[in-house]
Amino acid sequence: MVNRKPGISDDSSPAHRRVGDEALRRHLRRAYRSELTRVWLPAVCLLSLLIGGMSVLLLHSQEQSRVELERRFALRAALQSSFVAAYVADIHKREVAQAAELLAGRDTSTTRLARASGVFGSSAAVLLDAQGRALSVLPAKPELIGKRLDVKYAHLRAAVAGTSAVSGVVPSATRSEPIVAFAVPFHSPFGRRVFSVGVPISGGPLRQFLGSGLPFKGGRAYLIDADGRLIVAGGSAEQVLALPPETLGTSGNVAVNGTQYRFDSEAVRGTPWRLLTLAPSSQLLAPLSGPKKWIPWVVLLAFVLAAAAALWLLGKLIRRNAELSHLAAHDSLTGAVNRPALELAFDRLALEGRRSNSATGVLAIDLDHFKDVNDLHGHAVGDELLRRVVETLIATVRPSDIVARIGGDEFIVLLADVDQQKADEVAERVVQSLGEVLFPVGVAGLRAKCSVGIALAGRDDSMDSVLARADGALYEAKSVGRNGWRAALVA
User: Fold this and answer.
1) How far apart, in Å, are the Cα atoms of 217 and each of 97, 202, 234, 457?
2) pTM greater than the 0.85 cutoff
């Protein structure tokens, strides 16, 4: 047992505290801190890394799930845009077929033009020549015949140049009402001609498709021209009439009347249009909300609590192991080192002594007339005296020295790195210190006197051989009058 407070004690010294409890506390603190550093802290670090990694993976997983849901939404919007493009291409194909059948001849009357446009459910159409001049208009408007109409309309200019095109929302050339016109160039015996028909999209299949293609409650889809004018909308009845919200970029989030929406803006191939699709964020991300969102975190929390409980139990186990370790190496009454621990300490000090070419000293200490204390004052008083003796020994020797109890009133002190002179000086202090300890019993005082035997270990000495020489010196000290010390001859 290592003392931290060297020096001779008196009645008011801190060495008179109960050494059994104090030594236990010091040992437990050291052992507990050591085990915390060796076992508990690595366990905390490992569990912290594990919990942190699980949290990062969970966050990453949920983020990836969110990205995947948004990607699927964007893919659905792209498919809707492709459908619109296919719808436009189909109208152009049908226009070319109707124009080649009904409008390629010399007869360009409104009757033929009405038959060709009627296929598309339209009563508004124009037929142009290769220079963009009107050959026929529907409804009939004679003052427009021969005038260039392509100058005013971009889709007609594109068709005159040889490319099928669609307009944005434009006023009809005949009635000035909003329409969406589909214009196609076609060949005739009289050169290239252009057939353009205004198709009523708002009541056609596009609106039905845009409305049915959204699996989200509250979803919206808007087909918008290049100037931001609404061509057709899909969704519930009240949403169809709503204007498209202002958005920036091809995708993101936008608030509409206090509701958050995820939007995707897709250009419609072959047209100046774009398809704006919106889904309420709460609907789009529904698979990640509610129990599906929180259950993994609840499981992680349960794991954290279980880990905390395990760490708490591990700390309790470490403390208990420290207590058991102390009990295994120390005398339960006085807190001094016991015989097995003394042997280990002797081997350690002897090894260090051989390395440093120094000696290990052994003091064998026996209390004088201790049996009389038990007989006259009882074992409780005797036990208290033994504790006080160990307190005094610990306070007297150096921090590097070891105090052990090997019998009833028999004690051993191992002295590290000493010669004969130093060992004699320590023995003298021990006899003096114990003699000065006043143990109050009744009116008279009881003093702890002792006899001490000294032996120095040689390089090849075992603890038993050194103790035998120290015991011989102890008996010699007792035989010459007690309360003194004697040194054994060097082996």
Assistant:
1) 40, 21, 12, 93
2) no
What pLDDT, on a 0 to 100 scale, did the predictor assign at position 8? 31
Task: Give the helix/strand (H/E) hosting 126.
Answer: strand 125-128
Q: What angle do CA 413, 419, 400 make, to 5 degrees?
A: 40
Q: How far apart are CA 9 and CA 292, in angstroms?
A: 71
CA 464 distance to own-chain centroid: 58
Q: Are 450 and 434 in contact (CB under 8 A)?
A: yes
β-strand 402-405 against 410-418: which pairing, if any? Answer: antiparallel
ω before 139 within 30° of 0 (cis)? Answer: yes
49 CB-near residues (< 8 Å, 6+ apart): none
What SS3 state is found at 244?
coil
CA-based torsion, 106, 108, 113, 114: positive or negative: negative
Instruction: Give the tens place of pLDDT for each residue, 1-36.
Output: 333 333 333 333 333 334 444 444 555 566 667 777
Closest CA to 95 of 114, 117, 111: 117
Beta strands 450-457; 485-487: pairing state: parallel
Q: How far apart are CA 220 and CA 243, in angstroms?
A: 11
Tens digit of each residue's pLDDT (9 = 90 or more) over 143-177: 999 999 999 889 999 999 999 999 988 766 555 56
Distance of alpha carbon 380 from alpha carbon 382, whole angstroms: 5
- Environment class of 291 (CB within 10 Å of its CB; exposed 0-12, middle 13-18, buried 19+): exposed
Structure tokens belonging to residue 349:
């000090």
- Under 8 Å between Cβ of 468 and 457: no
User: How confident is the model over 280-307, as a mean pLDDT?
Assistant: 84
- For the chain, what is the radius of gyration of the CA atoms? 52
Report which residue type is found at 387: R
What 8-state DSSP symbol labels residue 358?
Answer: -
Distance (Å) of CA 254 to CA 79, 215, 221, 246, 487? 22, 19, 14, 8, 96
SS3 280: strand
Which residues does 44 contact at the CB level (< 8 Å), separation at least 6?
A: 311
pLDDT in the model for residue 103: 94
